[in-house]
Amino acid sequence: MNITVAQLIGAGIAPTQAKAFVDALNQVLPLFNINTAPRIAAFIAQCAHESTNFTALEESLYYRTPERIRAMWPTRVPNLALAATLCRNPVVLANKVYSDRLGNGNEASGDGWKYRGRGLLQITGRGNYREAGFEAIPEDVAKPYGAVMTACKFWSRNNLNALADSSNIDAVTRVINGPAMVGKVERRENFREALAAMSTAGVAA
Fold first, then answer.
1. Over the stretch 29-80, which tens digit does the pLDDT of each residue have?
2. Rounded CA gap, 175 and 152, in Å?
3. Is the CB of residue 133 less than 8 Å from the CB of residue 154?
């Protein structure tokens, strides 16, 4: 039942990331019954899309233009003048846009930066870190074990195994990404590629 490095590579994960994550995946996925080829393939496909193939595990919040900041947070950053002060200043930006929500304190608390998006599915906010068991060690969510564990907890909480069992990848995407369904075509292709890889010896069908 163990996933191999070769299978991860076959699913589109680069060798470096495949080697870094294989142990965490084999340790954590069975705890959440992500233990068949369709379930594992759906999990890897979605995580790969959300994390740029397991390479982007921490939100940088480094933006060069005020226009881009305004586009990302139009209500939190209501004008270009304010946005201009947040360019190339990720700590201040995070504390501004994530303050007083998601379980975070105010801007002065520093929670916005401390609990910025991390992991394979980018959990964000002190409340979500607390629920996942990483409030005291937020940096660990950007490491393989924490990245996999938090993604699995989200997966289980939203009953995504049931959707994976029926290969309903669009429904999985909707839960993870919301109505925007960003990258739905790529996620379907990721799933097909991962399913082919995971259906080889070592993973149950």
1. 999 999 999 999 999 999 999 999 999 999 999 999 999 999 999 999 999 9
2. 14
3. no
Say if 187 falls within a structural domain.
yes
Contact 55, 176 (CB under 8 A): no
Q: Exposed/middle/buried for 138, CB within 10 Å: 0-12, 13-18, 19+?
A: buried
Do 49 and 145 have their domain in common?
yes
- Number of domains forming the structure of the chain: 2
In this structure, the answer to whether residues 13 and 32 fall within a common structural domain is yes
Give yes or no: residues 147 and 53 share one domain.
yes
One domain for residues 152 and 192 = yes
Distance of CA 127 to the CA centre of its chain: 16
End-to-end CA distance of the chain: give it in Å, rounded. Answer: 10
Q: Which domain holds residue 17?
A: 5-57+140-198
- How many Å apart are CA 169 and CA 119, to the nearest integer? 21
Give tens-digit pLDDT for 66-89: 999 999 999 999 999 999 999 999
Is the domain of 70 the same as that of 51?
no
Instruction: From 11, 9, 14, select the one nearest 44 (Cα to Cα).
Output: 11
